[in-house]
Amino acid sequence: MRSLRGIFAGLTVLSVVGVLGGCVVVNATYPPRPGESATSDLNLSPSPTAMEAGLRAALERNPVEGRYILNLPRGMERAVAQRIANAVGPGQAVLPDVELDEALPVVHVSRVWIRGEIAEVDVLLPVDEVWQAVTVRMRGGVVRGYRVERVRRWPPGMIEAPELFGWERDSVR
């Protein structure tokens, strides 16, 4: 009887560890594509973590001098966007508000693609009057963090920047 309880307890622990150990597969796509089952809500984990890691990698390889506007995808909650801005450019990255300082350069996140532990983030950086697209491919997730596998720079001017997405100053979202 005692050994049956031990076996049952061991199997229960293994089951719980398997469930909590990251067996949940997350798929996210922005911009959303018709007919895809992936979520387009980038406020949900692991999307903010992937955007943060992708932005860091792109900006480390292609730094922007001084303060810049960080334009994240439409639909981001302001609190989540502010956490990303603080993490990638403390005192440097500012969110686009209704009252924009047009003199500041803009860094855009134009695409987020997550399939399980693989994530890609497209970042558009200002370079000589055109946009430099950078695709950052990563592996990992929220628990282990994202590890950059590859950074690809596309020919300047190849991708057009999305419109600025901002919030009302008093908005909680």
Description:
The chain has helices at residues 2-20, 47-61, 78-88; strands spanning 27-30, 68-71, 93-94, 106-115, 118-127, 130-141, 145-153. The longest helix has 19 residues, at 2-20. β2 (68-71), α3 (78-88) and β3 form a beta-alpha-beta unit. It has one domain (25-153). α2 runs parallel beside α3. It has 173 residues and is of the alpha/beta class.
Which SSEs are present, and which pair or pack?
Layout: H1 2-20, E1 27-30, H2 47-61, E2 68-71, H3 78-88, E3 93-94, E4 106-115, E5 118-127, E6 130-141, E7 145-153
Helix pairs in contact: 2-3
Instruction: Tell me about the largest β-sheet.
Output: 7 strands, mixed
**Proportion in β-strands:** 25-35%
Structural class: alpha/beta
Overall mean pLDDT stands at: 83
Order of helices and strands: HEHEHEEEEE
**So what's the overall shape?**
globular
Radius of gyration: 20 Å
Distance between the termini: 56 Å
Proportion of residues in helical segments: 25-40%
How would you concisely characterize the structure shown here?
The chain has three helices and seven strands.
Give keywords.
alpha/beta; seven-stranded mixed β-sheet
